[in-house]
Amino acid sequence: MSDRPSPPRVRTSRPDDVPALHALVHELATYEREPDAVEATSGDLHRALFGDHPVLHGLVAEADAGAGPEVVGMALWFVTYSTWTGRPGIWLEDLFVRPSARRLGLGRALLAELAAEAVRRGYGRLEWNVLDWNAPALGFYAGLGAGALGEWTVHRLHGDALHALAATRR
Fold first, then answer.
1. Is residue 5 very low, low, confident or very high in pLDDT (cuts 50, 70, 90)?
2. Which residue out of 31, 81, 123, 141 is catalytically annotated?
3. Residue 57 CA: distances (Å) to CA of 49, 53, 122, 130, 168
4. Distance, CA of 30 to chain centre
5. What own/partner pairs with CB < 8 Å and gap ≥ 24 does 78-82 have?
6. 94 domain residue, yes or no
7. In-domain check, residue 159
8. In what order do the strands lie in the sheet with 87-97?
9. Which domain CATH number covers 112?
């Protein structure tokens, strides 16, 4: 047996990864300056990923933590559809690699696996949001060939406004 650490790897998430995924979601929220914004529970993530009607898909990145592989990164995504291209796409909801595991190529490996999944499925797009202040992420994505859609502005309806609009239906 070798004492060398195993190389980092990316794989499809499994039910036993949910606690690690939930922890990573919280770490991402803290990084994005919204540490108290996460409402989702581990149970919510488990149902979304592995329930009767999964609506979320996940990839995890593992690195050797001395006692064996540890989940240190994630890519959580779901299927979209473009009426203009007539093809589905992938929306990357969350991409995060723990700071201690950065520079190992895991972010790129997660995105490469996700791009390969889109190609395997015949999808036409892989899209995501990036906070405008996140210069390291913006530079990383530009280096991969991703282009910002500067003419688009994200809008969100949630909370009281969502309920108020729903109440006006006829």
1. low
2. 141
3. 6, 11, 17, 19, 33
4. 15
5. 79/123, 80/125, 80/127, 82/124, 82/125
6. yes
7. yes
8. 9-12, 57-64, 69-82, 87-97, 126-128
9. 3.40.630.30
pLDDT digits (tens, 9 = 90+) for 28-63: 999 999 999 999 999 999 999 999 999 999 999 999
**Does residue 129 form part of some domain?**
yes
| pLDDT computed for residue 156 by the predictor | 84
In a domain, 4, yes or no: no
23-29 average pLDDT score: 98
Region label for 32, one of left (φ > 0), alpha (ψ between -120 and 50) or beta (otherwise): alpha
Print the domain residue range for 17.
9-167
- Total domains in the chain come to 1
Q: Is 141 a catalytic residue?
A: yes
Which residues sit opposite 68 in a β-bridge?
A: none
